[in-house]
Amino acid sequence: MSNKEYEKTYRSMNDDLAAFFEAPKSNISEDDLRYAYPIQYDLANSLTQYIEHELIGEGGVKRIIRVTDNRSDRSVAKAVPLKESGKEGVEAFLREARLTASLQHPNIIPIYDMGLESSGLPYFIMEHLTGDTLGDVIKKLASGDKSYLGRYKLSALLDIFASICNAIEYAHSRNIIHLDIKPENIHINSYGQVHVCDWGLGKILTAEAEPEQETEEDLSKLDPDIINTMTLNGEIKGTPGFMAPEQTIANGTKDKRTDIYSLGALLYNMLSFHLPIDGKTAEELIRNTRTGEVRSLKESTVEIPESLVAITCKALRKEPSERYSSVEELRQDLDKYRHGYATSAENAGFFIQFKLLIKRNKTTSMLVAFFILLIVSIALLSFQRIKNEKDIALAAKIEAQKQQKKAEDSLSLFLTERQLTLKQGKDIDLLLEEISTSQNLANPTEQISILEQGLQREYSSEQKQEFYKKLGLLHFILQNFSASAKYIALINIEDQDRKLLTVSRQYAKIKKDNELLQDKQLAKIIDYLSFHQRYMIPSLFAHHMTVTSKHRREPKAYWPLAKAMLIMVNNYWNTEPLDRDLEEFEDGYALDLSHTRYREFRSHSGTKLTSVLAPLKLRKLNLRYTPFFEFWQLSGLRLKEINLDGCWVREIDLQNIDSLIKMGLKKITLDSSLYSEEAISHLRKYFTVVDTHKP
User: What is the mean pLDDT of residues 348-365?
Assistant: First the structure.
């Protein structure tokens, strides 16, 4: 029976039911519509996008208010100026927002929106950060708070500092310097995510010179009660105690090494809980900064490794040319320390190099100590035998005395080596604790070797739980699923661990540990893990791409893995899965990403960047009406055509388009109304430009 026949039957059965079929939509009330379509109703009837709630904080220049975004129904933070300051002040305030928004990095606070209210008051919207500032953490550590001392051990503090370095290194790669790095501008949430905030003093190195600062004679005007807690806006660009000597000089040259000094001051503060510069008055504090009067870390009541002291001192050199030349060089020295090697700042001699060699080669050192102990034991037995035969002839007595002297020398050597063995044991404990509690997944094979040695030693069940969990993650990255399942099954399973255990057991049945996953298999794993194990996926992907680099990779077979990684690097909550496929184009393929939210195409694993799109053999890429704005994201591709219609890319110059020239790009499509005539003219020198702008 057809639908019309059913309807006719029901009409004949019941007049009320017939009336129901013919009920006009105009009879539906406003309340019914509101409950039926709540999101559409809210968007259509909302008069204000942001609803203000309580005050979160207040600094020297702006106040931060928690607001609700009516459109997305999420809690965000709104920054507004403390007071009206004319058009120049408004421009400076909005400049901070735009500069910060240009920095897209996991460790830099994201900016979502900016604008002017009806009153002309400027504002910008950013992520609502919860948790502590680094300044709060340092104060808690200095006061002896047990919960913070347990959570923020040296390894955790160095992880935080490494994240800060990553953010500043990224900003420097964009020719932007911060100029106000201090604990109050570093935020750490309850999950350990680090954000560098407050880029109000940030400077683009290609920008015009800054206005003159106050001279030395005006230093007495500074308020000593605030100089250590806020930026001296309009007087000194920076925070005393963390600012570089060149920041205290009128028209002083500021470059990337200025930020490196502040990073050194920050590391000093994190290690000792004190400022590197001392001063009872504002004038004395600034003067000591200018003359480079840094307090010695060796005077600190906190025990600080000599390698970290050397790194900090080098970053805090008065002369910029004597500091680290880049944040990368500073971070490399930090990595050397954490892996047991001498840093460039130490100028390490033979003794230090030898001590670090023993520390790195613990098994060999223990074997050497064992043989020395065996030799000493034999000597002691010989001494005992000679002593029991003391009534032998005079010649035998003289010989016994010689043997006694040798045995005493051997005993002294034994005691020395025993002290060295005990110290090595303490160093092993420290290294195992750092590896098991850190989120560092680099060099998984080396970390596994050290942790498996730790399982042979005496540790509590809680400590071994940490070892098992880290071993499970490291074996998972190496695709050793049998070993991964074995270790994860030994820990107290949580939701995210349960997913890893499920995957490990499933793939342990279908592949051996010495075999490699196919690209589509890894794609399924990444899709299944999603954001629950987001921090380990870049390392998993990077290792897979490294070990399979010698294998011939078919672009269409690799495409499912590329789609999974595109969602991950562009944030799961900000993108939708792709329902598009590769299309053949000339000697390769074409990919259409138009009208999507994709803008990042490289995966970050520690300091290593891996291109997600490079194996696809793309010759044509359509990014029309996407948020793409950085050419360096395309490094490693060999494109011939690209469509950037509706996209706005910052600073189009020779350096900026160098990656496009190197890849052999021939044709570029864009809207000329989004760029200056100079930029369009520059592009036409190297490419065929198709202009979609219609006046």
Answer: 57
